[in-house]
């Protein structure tokens, strides 16, 4: 192997994300990342304490990407809250299709010792909480956000796994379900 080079934390995280995208979380090792960034594995420990921290950093970067995408969804403050909520769910679906391994990292659970701080999750959920607050009020905003997220997560997990085997239009099914979940959440 060549003499150890220099690498940055950003390069390490990017390599980790590429590994997870290509071969799954189980393939994310310090050695695999070191190989990708062109250093010896012990050199990584100058920037990352170990695999648990590496996983946490990869998950955080993935959540940050989702946060940026959700924040980019139109003008949530001035739009109809039900339409804003639907747009957020559609953006989540787009993210899941473009980055299935990242979606699974965020929603499939990682070991407790590798989970990001709750503040990281809260930042990414802010647009959703804003939309549900406007839709149902502050008292039930978190309940509504959890309901919509749980439905979307279930639908997307099945869709990504290719589990909708009975035919029909999956896009139409997503829209049909989304409309009904939002209507149910908004009903008093």
Output the keywords.
69% helix; 2 domains; Tetracycline Repressor, domain 2; Homeodomain-like_sf; 0% strand; Arc Repressor Mutant, subunit A; 188 residues; DNA-binding transcription factor activity; mainly alpha; 9 helices
Q: What would you say about this model in short?
A:
GO terms for molecular function: DNA-binding transcription factor activity; transcription cis-regulatory region binding. Helix content is 69%, strand content 0%. The protein is an all-alpha fold.
Q: State the end-to-end CA separation.
A: 65 Å
User: What is the CATH architecture annotation of the largest domain?
Assistant: Orthogonal Bundle
Radius of gyration: 19 Å
Q: What does the average pLDDT come to?
A: 91
Tell me the major beta sheet. Answer: none
- CATH homologous superfamily (4th level) name of the largest domain: Tetracycline Repressor, domain 2
Structural class estimated from helices and strands: mainly alpha
Individual helix count: 9
Which stretches are low in confidence, meaning pLDDT under 50 for 5 or more residues running? none
Q: What is the CATH first-level class name of the largest domain?
A: Mainly Alpha
CATH fold-type name of the largest domain? Tetracycline Repressor, domain 2
List how many beta strands DSSP finds. Answer: 0
Keywords: DNA-binding, Transcription, Transcription regulation
InterPro entries: Homeodomain-like_sf (IPR009057), HTH-type_TetR-like_transc_reg (IPR050109), HTH_TetR (IPR001647), MT1864/Rv1816-like_C (IPR025996), Tet_transcr_reg_TetR-rel_C_sf (IPR036271)
Domain HTH tetR-type: 6-66
GO molecular function: DNA-binding transcription factor activity; transcription cis-regulatory region binding
